[in-house]
């Protein structure tokens, strides 16, 4: 895997406070920041801080370790592919209460979000993520040790044509603030291998 070069990162929106280096990135969130579009809740939030790299590479994997001490409902931090307000994906742990958190992902296409989650213990304060791209398709994985990764989901972003942006985000949808720490970042060869099962349907 190649070294992660922080100097190439660009802010879409800045957090309350932050620090950026090749070894560590921190973000301290502002209250009432989030990413969500329409579905079920019928509101639109598009003000979470996002820090990303741009690339035209269609096949790659991005790995990062997140550390956090969130204690308020919905606080979250993780990986993101943010193209514009209506087209993006994210994966994170979202704090719920003193007992559980939601480990999950959101995919937003054409202004509508979905949310896929599983419950994990609230005591977990570290998580690794691996984001892999194959064209317009993406794979999200998580790991508690940075070695053994488990698939969270495979998804498609309609707007992920050629050049995209990907990276990190953190937010606090309610009246709270916390600091997220990102380390062990790398970008390199795609770890999501080409499918070797059923052949694609032939075009008619």
TrEMBL record:
Gene3D superfamilies: 2.60.120.200. SUPFAM superfamilies: Concanavalin A-like lectins/glucanases (SSF49899). InterPro entries: ConA-like_dom_sf (IPR013320), DUF1349 (IPR009784), UCP022704 (IPR015987). Pfam families: DUF1349 (PF07081). This is DUF1349 domain-containing protein.
